[in-house]
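Minutes, project check-in
Item: structure for the 157-residue chain
Input as provided by the requester:
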Amino acid sequence: MLTIKATTPVWRVAALATLVAAVATELFGLAARALDVPMKAGNFAADHAEDIFVGAFAFSTILYGAIGTIVAVVLARKVQHPAQTWVILAGLGTLVSLIFPLTTTDDTTTATQVMLVVSHLIAAAVIIPPVAKRLSLVPAARASSAGTAAGPEVATS
């Protein structure tokens, strides 16, 4: 069991969770390949499905995890209830991310769509809880007064 301390910077918890999620989603993608799930997908604007390259799951997870890390740090500094806000925003972001696998081109198989949806859910399940836990440790007074001249410094970096 991983212990998350209030002294651990928010960015470090989010970055570590992102790296773990990248490994998990890439392993899931490799397992799907091994089970002969077709690795071709195209978004709604594409004419046809294109190959999903090895490393694409990890790459995408790291890219969007980096954005999530920035959001988490900003929430820790600026929002009174950063953990609740994080869970809502990250949950909504996850829901929005499911639009893409569900609106792929006609030549993307259902198995591929399901695999892509599950990979998004794996990433969310790995990243959201530890970041929410760390954000729950941000003192309310610190988050609400951050950005004011008299407010305490925020040790999130």
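Outcome recorded: The radius of gyration is 18 Å.
No further action items on this chain.
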